[in-house]
Amino acid sequence: MTEKIGIIDIIEDDSYQGKDFKKVVLKGGEILKVKYGREGFLKAKWGELQVGRAYSWTMGDYQGHPFVQDFTAVSNELAPPTEPQVSEREQQVVDEAHKATPPNPQAVGKGGYKADPAKTESIENQVSLKTAVELAVAAIIPPEKILSYAEVFKRYIRGDIEVKDEAVFAALIDKHFKTKKEG
Fold first, then answer.
1. What is the residue-level pLDDT of the chain in tens, covering all 183 positions?
2. 3-state class (DSSP) for residue 28
3. 42: which DSSP letter?
4. Closest by alpha carbon to 11, among 82, 60, 71, 88?
5. What are the residues facing 16 on neighbouring strands?
């Protein structure tokens, strides 16, 4: 049993071997056949189907063929996507990181950093950078050091840097932070 959400684009009456059903075409072209259901359960709900309305579809599987088990109206329309909310502090850290001098000047494009296609798919790079940004947002590391720390974290994740005790790694970060505050 799976769930899917879709907006109805077309509703047509149809039949197969003398049995009536509703042929529902969702936006995107997917076709669902809403048949009678057990003891006419789905047929009783046919009147609820409306073009342009979003529904949650409960799908079953019979010998490799999907079928509609139930549906529920979600809303008249799906809400438009919203922009992600970024705190002022997060935006400030990102802006400061863009101003920092990158370790590789060829990586800088017009107006900011240019992603290296060979590296953008690397999970290690993404996790490392995310961790460094989170530490900068929490004021544990300075924003201008985000790229440097991300590089160290990436090497640590890959196993290039061996730290036998996680507390030692945390202490290194803590030591750097205290040195910055004192200096």
1. 788 888 888 999 998 888 898 999 988 888 898 998 888 889 899 988 988 888 888 988 888 888 898 998 886 544 555 566 777 887 887 777 766 655 555 544 444 455 555 544 467 777 778 888 887 887 777 888 888 888 877 777 666 766 655 665 666 556 555 554 454
2. coil
3. T
4. 71
5. 19
Domain span(s) for CATH 2.40.50.50 in the chain: 2-75
* Surface-to-core class of residue 95, CB atoms within 10 Å of its CB (0-12 exposed, 13-18 middle, 19+ buried): exposed
Sign of CA dihedral 38, 44, 50, 53: negative
Q: Residue 182 belongs to what H/E stretch?
A: helix 166-182
- Tokens 């799908």 sit on residue: 59
CATH number at 2-75: 2.40.50.50
Sequential DSSP letters for 70-114:
EEEEEESSPPPP-PPP--HHHHHHHHHHHHSPPS-GGGEETTEE-
Radius of gyration of the chain (CA): 27
- The CB density around residue 41, as the number of other CB atoms within 10 Å, is 11
Task: Decide if 143 contacts 93 (C-beta within 8 A).
Answer: yes
Quote the CA–CA distance of 22 and 2 in Å, as a whole number. Answer: 20
Which distant-in-sequence residues (6+ apart) come within 8 Å of 1 by Cβ? 58, 59, 60, 61, 69
